[in-house]
Specification:
- The chain is α/β, with parallel strands linked by helices.
- The chain is 40% helix and 22% strand.
- The chain has nine helices and ten strands.
- The strands form two sheets. It has an eight-stranded mixed beta sheet, with helices on both faces. Strands 3-4 form a two-stranded antiparallel sheet.
- The longest helix has 18 residues.
- It is globular.
- It starts with 13 loop residues before the first strand and ends in an 8-residue tail after the last helix.
- This is Filament polymerization regulator ParJ.
- Pfam families: PAC2.
Length: 287
């Protein structure tokens, strides 16, 4: 673990966070942050004190062998820094588990790191279960509780009322602290909600790619998403009721998406294609 004092001044930093648990259907969001950490070689610089935020009877520690030595890994939230080579910028990754207690203190501690590192925006990733067919692109929506951020980025200002998770609490804490924050939500088909959900993870990373205006190396994730869809296709084909239900979801989704077949949408997708092709084989793809 590197020390916070040893981190050089960050370039155009943004914080990207995801938490296992209630806001992470199919582990899609936490897998997205783990992917970024892997492909860009994240350096962990902080881990929150597990005893402050976790009930170990709910989130139990794990025992593992390090040679002949038994070690314990405690459930916690870790922060790492990744340095994106092209275009040059730094990302602070927060990968953790939704805390069991002291949520306000938890958010304040994360915001303390954000302020100390000069983070300019906090992006949280989440995944929820939805009535969406696995055969269509995964819907990803962007929301914020900050009206200024909503206007500047063209996002929906959330009007949700009801139970919320740590993602919603952290976003609200950012708003009160004057830190621009937004959340990207991926909809995971509720009839195939078990982890992993690589197609939803890929959709979140594509959305983040567009927002940050950089190419993210996807590695084997694209093929994993394709294999996942083929596997679900086979399962659905074996059950007539499920197949009929999927067809109904497809019809409803296609009816909603008809207005999207516009020149503007096609142009946007072409720009994404060029940006991703530009990232292949370049410095970023080496991670």
């Amino acid at each position: 673990m590197i020390e916070l004092d040893d981190i050089p001044e960050l370039v155009d930093p943004v914080m990207v966070a995801a938490f296992e648990g209630w806001n992470d259907a199919g582990d899609a969001a936490s897998a997205a942050v783990a992917h970024l950490d892997q492909v860009w070689g994240g350096e962990v610089f902080a881990a929150l004190d597990a005893e402050d935020y976790y009930d170990f009877q709910v989130n139990r520690p794990t025992v593992w062998m390090d040679g002949d030595t038994r070690r314990i890994t405690w459930p916690t939230t870790r922060l790492s820094v990744v340095r994106v080579p092209e275009p040059r910028r730094d990302i602070v990754l927060v990968h953790g588990i939704e805390p069991n207690m002291r949520w306000r203190s938890f958010c304040n501690e994360l915001l303390g790191f954000a302020h100390e590192l000069g983070v300019e925006t906090v992006v949280t990733l989440g995944a929820l279960l939805g009535d969406t067919p696995h055969t269509r692109p995964v819907p990803v929506s962007g929301t914020t509780s900050d009206p200024v951020v909503a206007r500047s980025l063209g996002l929906e200002q959330t009007k949700y009322e009801g139970p919320t998770g740590i993602v919603g609490v952290l976003q609200e804490a950012c708003t009160h602290a004057g830190m621009p924050a937004l959340t990207f939500w991926a909809a995971v088909p509720h009839y195939v909600s078990q982890a992993p959900s690589p197609k939803a993870t890929l959709a979140l990373l594509r959305k983040l790619e567009d927002f940050l205006d950089l190419a993210i190396p996807m590695g084997e994730l694209t093929e994993d998403a394709r294999a996942w869809q083929l596997g679900v296709d086979q399962l659905a084909a074996e059950d007539a009721e499920v197949a009929e239900y999927v067809q109904a979801l497809e019809a409803a989704r296609d009816a909603e998406d008809l207005p999207e077949a516009s020149g503007e949408a096609i142009a946007l997708e072409f720009e994404r294609y060029l940006r991703r092709k530009g990232g292949e084989g370049g410095p970023a793809a080496g991670g």
